[in-house]
Specification:
The protein is an alpha+beta fold. It has 2 helices and 5 strands. The protein is globular, with a radius of gyration of 14 Å.
Amino acid sequence: MTFARQALGLEGETRACQAVEARGYRVLARRYRTRFGELDIVARHEAAIVFVEVKARRGGAFGDPAAAVTWQKQRRLVAMASDYLARHRLERCAVRFDVVSVEFHADRGPVVTVFPDAFRPGW
């Protein structure tokens, strides 16, 4: 991964954190590593633990960033969430999966869209 892509991802995660915190979420972890991959943001919102996947894009050339959260990615997110919940003894908590898309446009600045409860696993 290039430095420019890493920087874009970090900026996207920072914007996503700001957006979810403005909605009342409390961020518990960023870039949480598991053996299955990395969770972008883990937060608490009301009584739920929320796993937030962030998709950032520069411009609109590659379509809606949220559409990049395919069923394969969802399956990996569920595995990573299960790992997090087990390690933190939170198996009995309500869980939600949100997606945040961040589109950086040169002419109008970043557009951040939060999709609460974006998908539900078949637990």
